[in-house]
Design a protein that fits this description.
2 domains, 7-stranded mixed sheet, binds pyridoxal-5'-phosphate, 5-stranded mixed sheet
């Protein structure tokens, strides 16, 4: 029996935590301080009391990053909502696994329905798909399909002497290289293609690189485009790239971990036009759609059946997969995982809460927040936009008074971000490109207001002014 008092009280404490606006996003500590505060996380021989556990939870919350705070701009996810928490709880309470219909009958049917919805919005036909543990896993799965199609004996006999080469934009996510490492392709065999001033992979450069690879007797097997690059939020030109993919018969994948959900937006789906011409598509719902981590899928276009062909070993599975009237619904054979959490509920609950129109409106709100933040950067005298941006990241530098060499400006911005982090008032990330160190502000929180953004800039500029005095 569950202890309802204990659970109810704890849950109510958690809700109180979530609903109490805190002044700090993070109570910044060094790792060694934290170890001290938690007695180095030693486990005891005897059990802890409920009071001890409650104390621990309080302390855990105190020192964890409050990603639900409206001053949290650090990652491509942010915010906290009932739909996600409830779905996550339902998944934990039922504690099942997605490998068979027998074990997850309702969730399996929901997953299939959600895949159909994503496929329809993507313009995919004769499609299939699966939910996976994140966008990196989705990209890996797409690369694995492409690899096995390009080297047909690899599944059974291992890597041949065929030299497979993948292509992705220089601004693409590092998961493509991780995938190449895992799949025996080699990270040097992911050729990084130059991006233009808008951050989009340059089609002519891609074609040049493919020709060079062919001339070297290597085999181009995978083009990884991106819909919403991690730092600049750029959308590659899928129509132009797909023509090249077709010409050279190369698998064409789109990483939509960040920007993929624009398929649900009435106003912004044009950013991802040409998606229907691609072979596969990764999409995360735990980034801009606010589902708790993780909730991701990979969709395959026009090749229903390929996932089972690539991922199913067909051996040693009769302890789990049994013939029955429902066994055609089993999702395990399509997966790299055995046990798999029920993540799809988080997407389904998003639609239960908002409906398709509401989700489209929420995406518009995120774009409005980005426009507002960008306008602030333009209007505030000390800030300088480093990238035009068409999505939900705003990349800018603070230009300190009397300093005009880029090296010092870079160093200043690096320190500024660190000082802001240590203050705990707002949390924002940074990156660098083309010799510039800059701040990347992300507007992916459904609850963000103009006042929250104003407050962020106030925090940033106040700290920057103090730092300026040190120069
Ligand atoms: C463009 C892009 N692709 C893939 C990923 C990886 O997604 P995940 O963190 O869900 O593995 C990210 C993460 O930020 C991303 O920005």
């Amino acid at each position: 029996m569950l202890d309802s008092n204990f659970l109810n009280e704890t849950f109510s404490d958690l809700v109180k935590y979530a609903n109490t606006p805190s002044e700090k996003v993070i109570n910044y500590q060094t790792a060694s301080n934290l170890k001290q505060k938690f007695n180095n996380f030693e486990v005891k021989e005897n059990s802890s009391s409920q009071a001890d556990i409650k104390d621990f939870i309080k302390k855990y919350l105190n020192y964890s990053v409050n990603t639900g705070s409206n001053q949290f701009f650090n990652q491509l996810f942010a915010g906290r909502n009932e739909f996600g928490i409830l779905a996550e709880m339902l998944s934990s309470f039922t504690n099942s696994s997605m490998y068979t219909f027998e074990m997850a009958p309702v969730a399996t049917l929901i997953e299939l329905k959600m895949l159909e919805l994503i496929a329809n919005k993507s313009g995919f036909t004769n499609f299939e798909g699966k939910f996976v543990s994140g966008g990196s896993h989705a990209n890996l799965a797409a690369m694995m399909v492409a690899r096995n199609l390009a080297d047909e004996q690899i599944k059974k006999s291992g890597i041949s002497d065929k030299k497979l080469v993948a292509f992705a934009s220089e601004d693409s996510h590092y998961s493509y290289s991780k995938g190449a490492n895992i799949l025996g392709i080699g990270i040097n065999n992911v050729i990084k293609i130059k991006a233009d001033a808008q951050g989009k992979m340059i089609p002519e450069e891609l074609e040049k690189a493919i020709k060079k690879v062919i001339a070297n007797n290597q085999t181009p097997f995978f083009i990884g485009a991106t819909a919403g690059t991690t730092v600049f939020g750029a959308f590659d030109d899928l129509s132009a790239l797909s023509k090249i993919a077709k010409k050279y018969k190369v698998w064409f994948h789109v990483d939509g971990a960040f920007g993929g959900p624009v398929i649900f937006s009435e106003n912004h789906s044009k950013l991802i036009s040409g998606l229907d011409m691609t072979n596969s598509f990764s999409i995360d719902f735990h980034k801009i759609l606010g589902a708790p981590l993780t909730c991701s899928a990979i969709l395959i276009n026009g090749q229903k059946g390929i996932l089972k062909e690539v991922f199913d070993n067909g051996e040693g599975t009769n302890y789990i997969f049994h013939d029955s009237e429902n066994s055609s619904y089993d999702l395990g054979p399509l997966s790299l995982q055995c046990g798999r959490k029920v993540d799809v509920l988080k997407l389904y609950f998003l639609f239960l809460y908002y409906g398709l129109d509401g989700v489209s409106d929420k995406i518009s709100d995120l774009f409005n927040s980005a426009s507002y933040a960008k306008q602030k950067v333009i209007e505030l005298g000390n800030l300088s936009l480093v990238f035009p941006g068409e999505f939900l990241t705003i990349c800018f530098q603070y230009i300190p008074k009397f300093i005009d060499d880029q090296k010092t400006i870079n160093e200043f911005n690096f320190k500024l971000r660190q000082k802001l982090l240590e203050s705990g008032l707002s949390m924002v990330n940074q990156s660098n490109k083309n010799g510039k160190q800059f701040i990347r502000l992300v507007t992916v929180n459904f609850d963000l207001t103009k006042e929250d953004l104003d407050l962020f800039f106030t925090h940033l500029i106040t700290i920057a002014k103090k730092l300026e005095n040190e120069y």
